[in-house]
Amino acid sequence: MSQTVIGVFRSDNQAEEAVRELKARHFPVEDISVVARGDERSSGLGNQNLADGTVAGGALGGLTGLLAGVGALLIPGVGPIIAAGPLAGALTGIVTGGIAGGLIDYGLPEEEGRRYEEEINRGNVLVAVETADDELSAEIVAAFRENGAQDVKTHM
After folding, report:
1. What is the rounded CA–CA span in Å between residue 139 and residue 134?
2. What's the N-to-C CA distance of the chain in angstroms?
């Protein structure tokens, strides 16, 4: 059964280190998603958009070198965000519902989607990894915690 492990990080550096560790453990990059507020992070991104596949330079420090498809999105009622990975695809079509709506469409419970949206609005970084393997799920949880995630949950 597919599951998604989500970690909430207080800094870009913590999120970057967690993603770097997952890559070192050979987790497929295409299974890793990152979402964060884009205000100061997106300066210099111009009008780049995930929907057209543009890769953004400079967003979230070194994450652009770690993940493909990093770009800026403008979500109505939320403002600019930076997103990458499969979760970014769920956010590109949002017209209403904000980040929570995209997370719900991605398969998370409504209450969790709203809570994660609040975390992102506070300036925290959400990193999510999809896996179908319970042992890998435990590795992801450990990597998140070792790199400073304040909140780690597994969603089925």
Report:
1. 9
2. 7
